[in-house]
């Protein structure tokens, strides 16, 4: 038990990730879209992505990633489950209680967080708050999205980018000066630009009009050009703030774990921050843009393959619909069993 309330910090204690087995290649998409493997790779950096099979939902992804994170931590007990997602199993109720029950955690606090591709950063801030307040000693935070269920399969601009997957971390109460402790989580939004990334139909506004939605409004829509510009600007600024709050310089950052939106955005953010490619973690070529799952899945895979090791000073940053963005820092800890 950490007694000093003001000294409590959320510390990474476990990590896990999972993608569904169904793999979609660029050639698979080119078979029915006006595109090609070369066109997709040069514009997005993506070669393959994973999608849910018929009947599979976000909760299935979340359970697998959550179980792996709990196993990684060496302790299956948590006081809360926070699920960051844009694709809940259904509008009501939240998906997190279902995930908690399936993990044998029935009775703990469980709720969803919705901040699109920045959901994991918002979830980190939420979990850290639960721990700082003494509400929880240990929190399972999961980012999971079945984005292919809301993307128009005939829309080349989104169908080639978005994919499905889940990643999770276990956070425990600890001290701010120990490895794994989260730094300040910088968060921001700009609702005046909410139209840039949205699903127009299905919510209370469309339903209250008592009309059927227009064709295509049930699918995810994105203004790619403006989104690119804001993503680069907002992730860069948030990253600079987070690094300054940690008392670091950007040269101190060993590993950048940015939301895997597309390769061009990642390159632009790295250049703005002066963080070379060999210090950037990346899995977008193999898994695409997995929404709220992006960063925790990247952490899990990088930890597993050794590109992320204990002692690495890390910068995490994300951008998504809302518009919403965020960033934080930590020094990667030595996890149980690693």
From TrEMBL:
Pinpoint the Beta-ketoacyl-[acyl-carrier-protein] synthase III N-terminal domain residues: 111-191
Q: In which pathway does it act?
A: Lipid metabolism; fatty acid biosynthesis
Query: Which parts of the sequence are annotated with region: ACP-binding?
Result: 260-264
Documented EC number(s):
2.3.1.180
What is a single Pfam family found in this protein's UniProt entry? ACP_syn_III_C
- Keyword Metal-binding attached: no
UniProt keyword terms in alphabetical order? Acyltransferase, Cytoplasm, Fatty acid biosynthesis, Fatty acid metabolism, Lipid biosynthesis, Lipid metabolism, Multifunctional enzyme, Transferase
Positions of the catalytic residues: 117, 259, 289
- Record InterPro entries: ACP_syn_III_C, ACP_syn_III_N, FabH, Thiolase-like
Ranges in a coiled coil: none
Query: Which residues belong to any copy of the Beta-ketoacyl-[acyl-carrier-protein] synthase III C-terminal domain?
Result: 244-332
Catalytic function, reaction form: malonyl-[ACP] + acetyl-CoA + H(+) = 3-oxobutanoyl-[ACP] + CO2 + CoA
Catalytic class of the enzyme:
transferase
User: In which compartments does the protein localize?
Assistant: Cytoplasm
Record family assignment: Belongs to the thiolase-like superfamily. FabH family.
Q: How does it assemble?
A: Homodimer.
Annotated function: Catalyzes the condensation reaction of fatty acid synthesis by the addition to an acyl acceptor of two carbons from malonyl-ACP. Catalyzes the first condensation reaction which initiates fatty acid synthesis and may therefore play a role in governing the total rate of fatty acid production. Possesses both acetoacetyl-ACP synthase and acetyl transacylase activities. Its substrate specificity determines the biosynthesis of branched-chain and/or straight-chain of fatty acids.
What does the domain comment read?
Answer: The last Arg residue of the ACP-binding site is essential for the weak association between ACP/AcpP and FabH.
Can you name this protein? Beta-ketoacyl-[acyl-carrier-protein] synthase III
Which species expresses this protein natively? Winogradskya humida
